[in-house]
Every structure is written in structure tokens, then in C-alpha cells.
Amino acid sequence: MSDKISGFFSEVNEVLEDKEPPSRSSQEFYKKFFPNSTLNDWLDWKWQTKNRITTKEKLEEILTLTDSEKQVFDLHKKNLPLAITPYYASLISNDVNDPIRKCVVPRIDETVIAPEESEDPLGEDHQSPVSCIVHRYPDRVLFLSTKRCQVNCRYCTRSRIVGEHQCFKSDTTEWNKAFEYIQSHKEIRDVLVSGGDPLTLSDNKLEYILSNLRKIEHVEMIRIGTKIPAVLPQRVTPELCNILKKYHPLFMSLHFTHPVELTTETSKACTMLADAGIPLGSQTVLLKGINDNAETLGKLFKGLLKIRVRPYYTYIADLIVGSGHFRTNVETGINIFKELQGKISGYAIPKLIVDAPKGMGKIPVQYNYIKEINGKSLTMENYEGKIMEYRNG
Ligand SMILES: *Cc1c(COP(=O)(O)O)cnc(C)c1O
Questions:
Q1: Does residue 208 have an active-site annotation?
Q2: Which of 174, 212, 319, 374 could bridge across to 168 with cysteines, CB 3.0–4.6 Å?
């Protein structure tokens, strides 16, 4: 091998090693907390699912819980159940301010309910003609395929339905009603399969949904919304990719929160999906003390492009019950995006969105770069804050 070529390969290796490593290596983690398991178990998504951390006792083996984290378990309220895959737990450090910890470990703060908060802040239940469809926009619907997620995010928009550890009652019956609804509404050209997380379903069930949607002629595109590549990358198998690629045009919206999630495992999962021809977008919720600054978000967005995921939307946290400790105000979000504008690739900058209450839909918000309109003269501000005159056509 010539020097030039070996130089190239060592560079490639460096790029791979450059990925944010898990805060504890996976190997160390499973040997310590799942001593009877093997590396093969760890790599098996079904093992990961079976061994999810769902009790205070198991969580306490892994983390030293704070009073606020302990208290919430003692209340025995019917809040969103705890659920963390061993893989995702391996990304959490014992630091109380660890970003992933704040996302998935419940705190007493989530029992504090503000007057503007509600169970169904987006008014989805009122726009639901059949139980697993939300039809808000004219040409597209949300298809709630399952109530299950592998990891329960504490700020979940659908915490009212997630976590019952089951799918919709006899899912195929419910799904069939949804197919009929879509079939009879010719204006629906885009179906967004979400939940819960559709990739918690078995390959067979997922294929049942995709193949039935594909039979409907006016459905031009299918999208899957999932957090699996971040919380259980082992689920992305060659078999799954072979199924997905039969149903193109199929897009995926992947939920990412923090650059810590961009591990070698996640990178591999996204590469497999991208190689199956699936355009990948990402969705991020702006969360106080977790990712609400330009440095963290910039790093996340640039990191996503490196694994072929195009940042699509960033949301102000929805007004879900008990989410006040997560919510940043809209101005903070706008300022962060103003800071990013022009500093990083345009491809790395998603739209900032307020999902308006009562089913009013997504509203893009951004800094107003037009300072004044005076006849044909526009006064505008560039990314460096310089003011300029633009002669309007
Ligand atoms: C977000 C959402 C969609 C998809 O919106 P896009 O802007 O097309 O990504 C569709 N239906 C509902 C109910 C939604 O909340």
C-alpha cells in the first residue's frame, strides 16, 4: 500500500473514532450491570427490549438517584412509566446534570402542572376520525401504529397514550379501519407512521402496515417517525432494511436530542438506513438545560449530517402536563437559531417550530431579518448583524 493510500485509511479510521463515545463503554456497562449476559445478547434488540430498565430498583443499581428522582417513584401516581433500554442507559453518566439522564429519568418536577398545560396539548384526539389516525392537514395524516416505545422520554407529547406496554387493542382491526379511512379520502397523499414507536413492532407487523398503505393508489409517500436509531440502534438489521426498501418513496424522521447520542452504533444504523435509499430527517425538541444552546445544537446538527441525517424540525417543547421544567421560551429558541444562521451549513439548520395548541398546527418561527420596508427599499440584516439596503424588484 502506498503511503498516500495508507494515509487515507488512517484518516478514515480517525473519522470513525472521532464519534462521541458512550460515557461508559458498552462492554464495561453490560458486564457490570447485566453480568449474566454476553456481547451477543447486548447486540440483540430483543434482549435489549426484554432487559429494559423499568423499576426504581434496577435504576438505582446503575445511578445514584437524587431526592427529586427518588420522590417521584414514591408518589405512585399514574404518570408515564419508566423505560430505558440498557444501550441508552449506557450513555448516561452518574452526573445529575447528564443530558440523557434528564430526558429519561423522572423527577419530582414532572408532578408540577401549569395552567396552560394539558394531556393532549395539540388537540389530536379531536382530529381523530378513527382511533389511530390524526387528520389535521389537508393532504397528510398521522398514523398512530402502536402505543409502545422502547424508551419513554419524560417530555413526550403523547404521554397520554404511550407506555401502556401494549399495542392498540387488537392492532390489525384498528389498523384496518385506518387503511379504510385513508382509502376513502383521496386527498391523503402522505402518511406519517408514528406512535409510540413503529419500530417497536415486529418486522411482520411493520410490513403489514407498509404493504397495506402501498396498496392505496393515492398515497404518494410514506414516512416513519422513530427514535430507534438513537435508543436501540441494534433494531436496525439488514432484514429490517430489506423490508423498508420495498416501499419507496419511504422517508424517515429520526428523533435526536443531544450529540451524546451520535455513537458508533447509531452511526452504523443510520448508514444502513441511508444505504437502503431512505432519505433521513431528524426532529429535536428544544429542552431546557439539555440542548438549549447554539453550541450543543450546532454540534448535534453537524454530527447528524455526518451520518447522513438532514435536520428537519426543532420544536419548542409542547405544553404537555408536567413539562414546565423542560420548556424554553420561544425567544430563546429564536436566538439560538439566529446564532447558528450563517455559521454552519444551511443543510445543518432545521426549521424551528411551535406546534400550536388545539390542533392549530405547526408554526415556523424565526428572527425577522427584514428591519424595514420603505417603498422599493428593504432594510435587512445579514448573519453578522450588518445592516444593508436591498432594492426590491
Ligand atoms: C407534524 C404533523 C404532520 C406532518 O407535518 P409536516 O410539516 O408535513 O412534517 C402531519 N400530521 C400531524 C397531525 C402532525 O402533527
A1: no
A2: 174
